[in-house]
Design a protein that fits this description.
about 140 residues, Hypothetical upf0131 protein ytfp, 4 helices, globular
């Protein structure tokens, strides 16, 4: 299955540590979503915004097991259309928190996500947005 990751699960090493063998990673974005970081990250529908991430092919059973872990069990899968860097449209599953579950702050998470997003080569304006979430 195709999965769009936008938080720290974009880090393939983290996925491997959790028994997931991702393949075919492609940078991409979702239109009309904005990134929010509370205690965890989530994408929230927001017209004229864009959120960046990595779409990867993953085993469905492994993803189900990953999202059954207590720390991410509140995330809900939704089908999204990812636009890749090559302008291909890819239907993928994206896991998001319900808006009312997105509480608190997590500057350490935001800083880690910033470093990962920078490493992945995401646009500078997107990096600035993430950086504001921990400063």
């Amino acid at each position: 299955m195709e999965v769009f990751f936008y938080g720290l699960f974009m880090d393939r090493a983290i996925l491997l540590e959790n028994g997931i063998q991702p393949s075919n990673p492609r940078r991409g974005h979702l239109k009309d979503y904005t990134l929010k970081i509370g205690k965890r990250a989530s994408l929230i529908p927001c017209e004229n915004e864009r959120s960046y991430g990595i779409v990867m092919t993953c085993n469905k059973d492994a993803i189900d097991k990953l999202y059954s872990e207590t720390s991410v069990a509140d995330y809900i899968p939704e089908e999204v259309t990812t636009v890749t860097e090559t302008n291909d449209s890819v239907i993928a599953v994206c896991y998001n928190l319900p808006a009312d579950s997105l509480t608190g702050t997590n500057p350490a998470y935001a800083e880690s996500l910033y470093k990962l997003a920078k490493q992945e080569g995401f646009p500078k304006d997107y990096l600035k947005k993430i950086k504001k979430m921990w400063l």
